[in-house]
Amino acid sequence: MEIKFTEDALNKIKPKLDDHTVMLLSYADGVGPYSHHGLVALQIEFDFILITDKMDKKDYDGQYDSELGPIYYKSYSKEFLSDNLKIAFQSNFNVLTLSDDSETIEDNLQLQDLREYYSRKVFLVS
User: Fold this and answer.
1) Which of 48, 49, 106, 117 is the 20 to 30 A CA-CA neighbour of 38?
2) Number of domains within the chain
């Protein structure tokens, strides 16, 4: 299982990564410290979240491989995902999109860098 990135998406995301960055493909269902609400339970919504390797990711028990490294997700959200995912950057709208071979899954994949904010909070794993 792999997530591929278009060149434009790589150019948008790669500069934000360092050796301690963990990438999450987070189903926005209100479960876990980085999913702030479950109001989208009637629709499918995903976010692309950056955390540090010291931050809690226990809810993200599934893993996709990618050219940028592993991307973790909540395994039960797999029902909305396929094995051939692609993240693209739409420069005309300045948004990331998530799609598979047959459809767009998320047309506004929010890139959220939570490393600095949450590293000062209680989300660190000791």
Assistant:
1) 117
2) 1
Residue 65 host element (H or E)? strand 62-66
Q: What is the mean pLDDT, run by run of 10 residues, along the chain of 126 residues?
A: 96 96 92 69 84 94 97 95 94 95 94 81 51
| CA–CA distance, 5 with 88 (Å, rounded to integer) | 6
List the structure tokens of 55. 């931050």
Task: Tell me which residue range forms the domain holding 92.
Answer: 2-114
CB of 98 closer than 8 Å to CB of 35? no
Give the burial class of 7: count Cβ atoms within 10 A of its Cβ; 0-12 exposed, 13-18 middle, 19 or more buried. exposed
2: which residues sit within 8 A by CB, 6+ positions away? 64, 65, 66, 83, 84, 85
